[in-house]
Specification:
Elements: H1 8-17, H2 22-38, H3 43-87
Length: about 90
């Protein structure tokens, strides 16, 4: 289970000060806590993702280099058109 420090007592007190009764404040506080801790990635999740990225990285590296060159040529072409149009 993922561990994270959440001050549930302060949250519950603030909710009570805002007009929630004890049961409502407790329910909202635990819902917040469960929502935050349930969405955290574990070390295993991160390791699995790193493995996926490494296996896919080599395959996509060449495509990204080509994309950068294409974007560079596009920017240079647009810049030359702008310069020619506005500066003569």
């Amino acid at each position: 289970m993922n561990e994270i420090a959440i001050d549930t007592l302060t949250i519950a007190h603030r909710l009570r000060d805002a007009g929630f009764d004890d049961k409502q404040a407790e329910a909202v506080t635990f819902a917040i806590r469960d929502g935050i801790t349930g969405s955290l990635a574990s070390k295993e999740d991160i390791a699995r993702l790193e493995g996926m990225i490494e296996s896919q990285g080599a395959r996509f590296n060449g495509k990204f280099i080509l994309l950068y060159w294409m974007l560079g040529v596009l920017v240079a072409g647009v810049a030359s058109l702008v310069i020619k149009t506005f500066l003569g």
